[in-house]
Please model this.
Amino acid sequence: MNQRSRLNLLVVQVLIISLMLALLGRLFYLQIAAGPKYRDAALSIQSRDVVSPATRGLIVDSSGVPLALNKVGLAITIDRIAIDSQPDKGVEVMQRLSKLLKLQYADVFRNTRLCGELPQGQRAGCWTGSRYQPIPITKEADPDIALQIVERSDQFPGVDAQPIAIRSYPGVLGVNGAHVLGYVGPLTQGDLSNTSGKKYFRSESIGKSGLEIMYDSYLRGIPGIRTLIVDRKEAITSQAQNTSPIPGDHLVTSLDVRLQAATEVALADAVRRGRANGYTSDSGAAVVMDIRNGQILAIASYPTYDPNIFEKGLTVEQASDLFSEKKAVPALSRALQGLFAPASTFKSVSVIAAADAGYNLNASYNCPSEVQVGTRAFQNFESKSAGTMSLKKALAISCDTIWYRIAFDEWLRDGGLRPKADPNDYFFKAAQSFNITQRVGIDLPSESSSRLADRSFKKSWYQQNKDFYCNYKDRTTKAQQTPFLILLAKENCVDGDKIRAGDAVNFSIGQGETVVTPLKLAQMYAAIGNGGTIWQMMVGKAIVKTDGTVLKTMVPQKLGSLKASKSTLDFLQQALREVVVSGTGAGVFAGFPLEVSGKTGTAQVFGRNLNGSLKDDTSWFASFAPTKKPRYAVVMMVSQGGFGASTSGVGVRKIYESLFGVQGNKVIPGAALFLDGKPPKVLPKISPATKPKVVP
Amino acid sequence: MSQIYARSQLYRRKRPSIFEGFDAVLTAALALLLIIGTLLVYAATRDWYARNGLDPQYYLKRHVINIAIGIALAYGTTVIDYRLLRAYTPIFWGLAVLGLIIVMIPGLGSSVNGARAWISLPGGFQIQPAELAKIAIIIGMSMLLSERSHDSNQPSSRDVFQALIIAGIPVLLIIVQPDMGTAFIISASVITIVAVSGAPSRWVVGLLVLAILMATVATQTGVISEYQLKRLQTFVDPTADTQGAGYQLRQARITVGSGGLLGTGLFNGPQTNGRFVPEQQTDFIFTVAGEELGFLGSGVIIFLYLLILMRAFAIARRTSDPFGRLVVTGVIAWFAFQIFENIGMTLGLMPMTGVPLPFISYGGSSMFATLIGFGLLQNVHARSRG
Model:
């Protein structure tokens, strides 16, 4: 062997040893370093989870009547993977299917698109779930049609029909409850990505809004999982785990289905009445609460929608209607999301402010037709002078000018536009003690915060808008540059951070920047009625397991208490009674056999409707009853409903009639909804078959 | 002096016993690999065949028969004087080239995984002439490069050129099939033999450059069929094709990776039993070892290969016969590059080609050829002692 051969042999040997070591190194990386990653990957290849959804818990009212339950439906589903692989992407199949189901092809098409596949603005009705699960077109198909689809599977490749459990809102006594109950729907990619720390399974339905989403973790239960080990042909080789589904727990609410039905009817009637009187009356809300503990007995919002449409299969039209401004956005719950100026209902706050400021509540005050505030004259409501009267009477007839006077005087005393370092701010402080800017804490999603136009609000508002008002001419179109608006802008630029006299007097009658939700006003009137306690408001009462044991009781918290003396509250309660006896509420409650205390409110609204008309006044009626031993607070609001009394006042009376069992001007014995005048405390037995106890 | 000594040794061993003169370590390593391979082939097929209503021992039985035939061939190769092989080499070579031509003829050759590499025989048997070609090329080249017509210590350029013709014809036929894996292995062996033969360095360098150039040209100009290219591309980006070649590579890697240190235990691999890796008893047999025997078991296999190769290097160094040395060198390169290509493919280090794992993969032609190759190692060893 020559030298070169020997050397080359050595080189080859070194090369080959290196190759073998490279294999060992790579093997070490795959099996040891990256082993766990590949083990997970292998597991996902081999195992298939078959999820059998748990029966969702019921939602019942305080006597056990079901508000949400489950029934068996027949789903027609489309498999996106299957239809996408067809030459025409399933167009023909979907056309045939929509004809058979008497649906619009456009609806079926959109229902089967993932939301991300559609351009912005055309997503209503899109599928929020995953591409890999069968997409239901309808869940309540006619069995004959379903049979046709199954029998003619060659004509409907990728389409299937199978029985499934669907959520049903039975609408006992015609109850709608859409905004409070919510609805369920498929999981979204976001739900699955586990950011909330909850573990979901792909085929589950979850709560999407209302109580359904708030109590989803209880209602949903735990689905049964069968983990199958499969081979390459998806044939099952063994079973790794098998758990049975654990049904969801039931939710007992404090709602009463009879009162809820009556409240919804009273609200719809009020809206209709407002429209009959020539007001736009686009929307409204009503709420009934137990003022002793914060529990909600009924809560309604107008306009509403059928909560069952989601399970039936939403058409494109239905989906876009939900958020259509023309239809006044039915998806929005006015009770907890609508913000409106409280108007004269806010004078209850002003009474407390006046008492704190040292005004004699029992003295007489003059109610002129107008009050000069700086350079501007502020008119009384309808510019009428009412003469001299007690403060009680002034509240009853809703005199504005008395409050202008007091508010203006107090504003001046606090230093006017150059406020003192430590102003008294009686009005702001009285309002703050109602915790206005704090949410009522209701167990429903997306509650809006009410807004109080006090000094700190003004400052932050100015910070945000100063730039706009100080450069008004550059920031606006010619049409917006009317002399009045330019003047307003100039004023706002100069001292927009200060409480001006106009702000102060407007504040005292609940106009201006202060806006509240109907729930907040109910909470405020409940506090006045119950002697000063601000209760958290809640709909859920308890979580009850399927075997009847109570898992959890929800107790509303005391959120605060009014800083008003007992004598002031006594006076206020009497004054609010006077409203109904001889004031603005007297006509509406004439002959009513029980004592009710309340306050009307008619709030001016600026701006125009879509059709160009000026916006009508917000109609409010806030109340509690019975006056002597208050138990319930009832508030109704109709946006653009006109007068407080004639639109909402009548509606509130209707609600009380149902609550107390009043027909005409008489209490029908045994017709009151609650025995002893108290909502039930004991939790009911839960059964989907429970019927409401209908009173004569 | 040493030659006289060697000759006297030869005369002394007139009637050797059948195991005498065998390298015991080599034999033990081979025996272990054959046993492990048998278990792996059985593990790869028993569950799936049983579940599909077939004989679970179908592959096991055939594999054992293949081994038996292969051992007989190896023994035959060992006991005849390898110098006698020279006489038969032209016949082997001719048969191999003939076989490689036959596979091109429609009706006679059959195509597996896109390569027309097989001749179908009656009774469901298939033979792969490329495997025979490997042996013919190694022996043929060794012959030409070791026998000199002139008095020189190194082969002349003429010798090298002739040797390259011997190798070139079958290699071209194999490229046409196309079976790039085998072409790569033979080319690597050819270069190794030329290098160790002591031929001028320009030949070695030239051949290396040529090999790289051809590989580049082949991929660029589409001489490599679409099927081959796809396999190569999926090597670069395994996620490119989720069901085809990329699927196989990804499954193979997951299967090996999921084995961890100790593996799931023989016959207990869910990936293997679920048959997620295609061709698992042949080209992807190493995934069974990876999943069921883990890093330790798979490491033992690589170690056994390394042991055989190191013993073979020792044989190549010890033998005084240039022909024997070149034969051993060729066999080493063949085994080493085939092992590296096969396991490397399984682990994602090498592109995907249909190359079986020596001594372990199921498949008659490969088993026979590699065992004959092993026989050559023993043969040279037996006749070079001292």
